[in-house]
What does this fold into?
Amino acid sequence: MKTECLEWLEQLPSPDGVLASEQLIGRESLRNLGLPKKYSEAWRLTNLKRIEKILKLPLAQSNQYENSIDKNQWPEIPKDGVRIILNNETNYKTNLPNGIRFLSNDDIKETINLSHQSIDETNDWGVSVNKACNNKLLALKVDGLEEQSLEILIPSQKETLNPSRILLVLGKKAKLKLLQVIIGEGKSSNNNLIQIHLDEGSELNHGLICFGKNDSSLFTQACIKQNIDSKYELNAIQHGWSISRFEPRVFQQNGKAKTKLNGLQISSEKQQLATHSLVNFNGPEGELEQLQKSIAADQSHCIFNGAVKVPKEAQKTNASQLSRNLLISKAARIDTKPELEIVADDVKCAHGATISQLQEEELFYLRSRGIDSNQAATLLLKGYCQEIINNLPVAAERWQILNQIIENLNK
Amino acid sequence: MTGQNTVDKLVSKPYKYGFVTDIETEKIDKGINEDVIKLISRKKDEPEFLLEFRLRAYKQWLKMKEPNWADLKYPKINYQDIIYYAAPKKSEKKASLDDVDPKLLETFDKLGIPLSEQKRLSNVAVDAVFDSVSIATTYKEKLAEHGVVFCSISEAVVDYPELIKRYLGSVVPISDNYFAALNSAVFSDGSFVYIPKGINCPMELSSYFRINSGDTGQFERTLIIAEERSSVSYLEGCTAPMFDTNTLHAAVVELIALDDASIKYSTVQNWYAGNEEGVGGIYNFVTKRGHCRGKRSKISWSQVETGSAITWKYPSCILQGEKSVGEFYSVALTNNLQKADTGTKMIHIGAQTRSTIVSKGISAGKSSNSYRGLVQIGPQATGARNYSQCDSMLIGDQASANTYPYIRSQQPQSNVEHEASTCRISEDQLFYLQSRGINFEEAISMMVSGFCQDVFNQLPMEFAAEADKLLALKLEGSVG
It folds into this structure.
């Protein structure tokens, strides 16, 4: 296993650009880690064969971009909206609205160093792969009191590995609505790392739509560092990947921040979708509200692992986590595992998990109103997804997510 | 606050059962190898098949690695520095209790386990195990009238070899885990229970385990078989003297329930937990598993875990028979530097199987208390249901409470519900009770007792009262 990883590292281009030092760090830790192993708790349930395939893909080349991306399916950009397309260097130079600016190289280095000290775990496989091979960075800073909105689109080139990285800094009291869309194409792999720093009193509404197709795979990590009085809301949707793994990690630096994590994964065919979240409270009076929903159809497999850490410093933390799962096929499988580690004694921490199928009574109710059973099931599934989808930034509506999900489930 | 003084005073309260019985014991040399296993087997006059079983397990054990996934950090155990067999001299089983060494009887009397039958008022049959051997089993004759077999496993090997051959290792195979393999190789004694068809066991059965030697590991093995339409309630208690060294305890318990049978297994575990600095104490690595083989069978585990420096224990139910039921009720209390990683596994295989998990963890001092449980619904378990609830109570800001519930479902026509909460003894509640004239200590013990009520309700009567007192004693003053 280790040799395959080493072979892959050898064929990478030599370190270059503003991320050169990061590439060295990533390569070093991959040398030690090798490929993920079945016996490690974090990868126990993952289909490792599909991961091995990823490293066999060549890196995406930006000069191939125009030929290999299908833009027709993208909805139009609204008149006053801004869309940045990653993996296409010409598009980085979009005109940004007032209040948002690109970070200078010096700023970038400083911010990256700051991240190292807190949440970027060097022994995390996904992060290390990204660091090792990625040289594309989008670094933005949002300032001012006016609410901004932004769409970042991350397409994948067919049959390649597409790494990308976003650095986002919200200054004091800044507000942003961010819609991040990751699209997978046949046999491609997408690996995105987004690092977010929220300064005092800032607010971020982060929508993440990850839609894969055919044999595409996804590794995406979101590392969020929150200062006091900041608010972070994440609504993440994963659908259609052969294998996907989303790892949001929230670090409440000094506590007293609000975090809301909502996730929805809909798997069908033989897909395996996973969310591994970690929320670390490092000061008092932090708040967390987490809701993770999964629907597993056909022979698919949904995984959720939600860790919450409340150390001694984090008195008066209020955290709740709920994992709700729908199993709608006999051959599908769901694994869910909340993980609570609590040391502070004056805290409220609750978690819950349920796994079931669609409720018989609800179906009956709809059918007694003259709706046939297929339609009734669709209606219930729609309602189930809507709870998360409704919270996405308004810009997400143009992507017609719900229709696509239901269409795929009804296939 | 006055609490702090009482903390120190009460935490340093000596462990009541920490005395050593000064009795001549017969020990074999330290260490483990094939010869030691053969020696143990020879000492117990075991038939050939059992020696083979032991040797197979030993070979398996050598190939295995000590598990490290649990939330427990402890120094490496030197398995060659343990005595695998120790027995009080002159310990041959006597026809009547009068022949048993009076010092031993005295020991059990001190522990509140009267073995002499005339002294007993309550209707409980006891099997007392001292280090590696069973000392006495009471009420044997009365039980025999009903066809119930209750004896030490060494006797059972001789008297009922066909039952042992058929069931030993059938629920916990020798290769199940590191500690089960070790136990299978060197197990010394334990209880054997057989309830024939259609019999409701007329009295509570109980085993009492006592470790006396400081350098001896205890490896007991319990096997309970409940035939069709039978039922039994079984209690288990454990204590050990105070030593500065750590003693290893690796037990295996196997339960088998056939059609319509029901087994209730209750444990009050109070092994020596080490002192405030965490010196000494028992390392408790136990594999307990019940197999609901028959239709509508039921296995219920209830446990109160208060002792041991390290606890690694997951009493489980394999729900194979249609409509079988598994239950797990647990109170785990850790104080000082104790570490516990405990929980249950409910493996639903058959259709319409049901399980309930209620786990209450209380962490005080600098201890760490983890709940780790698995609920697995297999593809054939249509209509299976599980309800789990795990609550933690934290006392002081040095202790940690961790919850790791693993849930896996492969059957859409099933329902799994899990909920958990964390709370503390709040100032408001304390104030309320104190303003009603209830003193500090009592108020805390009242609240803890209320927190654990769901579980205590499941314990047999005598045990429930004892468990309540035990918790109060262990906790008194640990709120500052």
